[in-house]
Amino acid sequence: MVGQNKGKKRGASSHEAPAEKAPLFPKSKGIDVPSDPEYSSDDDEEVEEGDFDEMLKEMANDQGIDSDDANDYIAGDSLDEEEEEEGDDESDIHSSDIEGASSEDGDDESEDGEDPEESDNEEDSSLERVASRSTDGQHTAVDSQDEAEGSGEEELDEVNMDKLTIRDFVGDIQGWKEYRKTLPQIDAGYASDSSTEDPANTIGNVPIEWYEDYPHIGYDIDGKRILKPATADELDKFLANMDDPDVFRTARDEVNQQDVKLSEEEIDIIRRIQGGNIPDADYNPYEETVEWFTSKTMQMPLSGAPLAKRGFIPSKWEHKRVMKIVRAIRQGRITRSGAPSQDTKPRFYDVWEKAEENDDDNTHQKRMARRARMPAPRLALPSHDESYHPPAEYLPSEAERQSWLDEDPDHRKKNYLPQDFGSLRSVPGYERFVQERFQRCLDLYLAPRMLKRTTQLNAEELMPKLPDPRDLRPFPSVESLVYLGHTGRVRSISVDPTGLWLLSGSDDGTVRLWEIVSGRCAKIWDLKETVHMVAWCPSADVCVFAAAAGSRTVIVIPSELCDEHKRLLSEELVRAGFNSAAQAEEGEEEDDSLPVSWDMPTSAEQATGIHVSVTMHKTVKSVMWHRRGDYLATLTAEEGGSSVLIHQVSKHKSQRPFRKLKGAVQSIMFHPTKPWFLVATQRYVRIYNLMQQALIKTLQPGVKWISSIDVHPQGDNVIVGSYDKKLSWFDLDLSVKPYRSIRYHRQAIRQVQYSRKFPLFATTSDDGTIQVYHGMVYQDLNQNPLIVPLKILRGHEIRNSLGVLDCVFHPIQPWLISSGADGTIRLSVHNTEQ
């Protein structure tokens, strides 16, 4: 087929060209055609047949050869390549191989019935004609000196060999291939016109660990393996590093397996990266801001174009739109929002409209506006037994099921029985759904409902706005002294009017006199019985105190504490009752039914300062002095009117103010400013006027058992403590009910006490604590008293469920003295460091 094609091509060319035959390009002729670096000998081996044919066509066109003639070269080249592949030696091609290839080519052509010499001559003539046409008017690379010498040279020198082109191998294509293999390789270095430098190692972006078990490190451009360089041992590396001054600026390139010396610029970049700086030293991160859009107004306009016509001519479209809206308003199709049209009729009518007489339209509208929507009550949430798969304990037994079926439907607690279904798909439709919905609608329609208004209150809003306790100082806050000496419970304590001395009575049967400031025990009186109460006389003219021990009350004058004048006045007050003349004058009026006897103490007791002993039939629980210091009230453990007695010390006279008393008396007290006497029973506090001998009022604290009472120094307020842990504050001018009830203690309240100088009061309890309050009473009757909790004092131990038994304020300082069941007395003072 190749021969036939060649015959056709020769027949076509014979009609166009003359019959002359002449060689086109003698092989001895030197033609200066520079070789193209893109077509190297190595590339020819890898190019396929079709690509190489195209390359030959392009080169023939560049040299001016006709495309039809170039096809002959391509066909011959393909035959030569087929014959070349059949050979054994592919690396070296000799002239004998070229001759063999040409002879074989001639044999192929002879098969078509033509002479091979004639075909070669015709082919040469056609190429000559093509070459002559393509070189007319163009510059050729033929050396003028070589033309003058002629074509007699058979071999070219080395200089001319480098300048040969395809024109020099017109009839010898195989020679052209061999010639290309002898050309030197092109080094793509800096002298090359290539803009990029190919790396020596072409493994690409491949982890270097993949080549750890192989002797090579990659492949070169020809596909050959790049062997790993020989590596020295650690000793050789150490010695080489010792001699190399640039060892500290050398880095290892693992990809190319070579050591790279870092330049000064690279070292500077590394140091800047380690320091957290920008790698580029010339980069300025704080460059001045470039105002791409300046805030300054330009003096000239951006454009000189004239204004648009719509800028100063009214819009016709807007005019039409406005007129359309105006017509709709005039026709009544558009009205104000919220204003109904006049011809509208209500869709629904209120049957209770104007139900009341003299009810006009405005009043009815206001009433309707006040009506609030009443939401329907919510249904109860389903329980566990309404589940389609309830727990086993919710399923009824057969007896329960039969009992439910026999029961009247109106008396059943539930109108259904719990059932268990295996899955939700097995649950049938509820058969009573329509009936229950209907009953629900009837309930909402017929059952009357009332909207319950609830007030949303915050807990913080309910708390009173109280001042800061730091603004209410001074008050006792820290424990200062502990008075030790009693071996039993200290039931009662009392401070003398001067504020220097303290009395304490205990279950050990002794009365002790303490110096308040130092805590020193000055004197001890042994009364042989439990001392329930001690009380100083409030008069500042005398120095006398009373102590209730057992069934008698002794009056003692501590002569060591007073001067001579005060001692004489005290003895005169106490001993005046022993004057026989006074007893004779008043003997007829003496009430012999009173269980009281005024006795002279023994000589031993007189030596200790006891001057009078008042003996009674029952145990004396409480002793209270009148503010003038001449009257003394005692409370005994018996019930009835004889439990409360009032004694006149100067006359040694006793009287019973009450014939009958309702309930057991718990505490008694004289009013500080008025001739009133307060008696606290178990549930009530009664106030009597001693001058009028009448009951004034009865206070109702609302507690179960009253324990103690105290009256404010101004006389208008009373505090009541109870065993049910409640404290009640009464304003006598306001009501007989408590103005304020406080319940802060966890156990029973034993004693309540007002301060005579500061707006303070305190409560003691069996929980072992003392709570101090600020209680300010204002002169303005329109202003209520201010009660603020201040401090909780601790320190007393609880013994046999008893805590703090008594407390008293200092008459001058903001101090509080307390006694407890642990046998100690503690002094709490104001902390000046706070």
Automatic annotation (TrEMBL):
**Protein name (record):** Ribosome biogenesis protein erb1
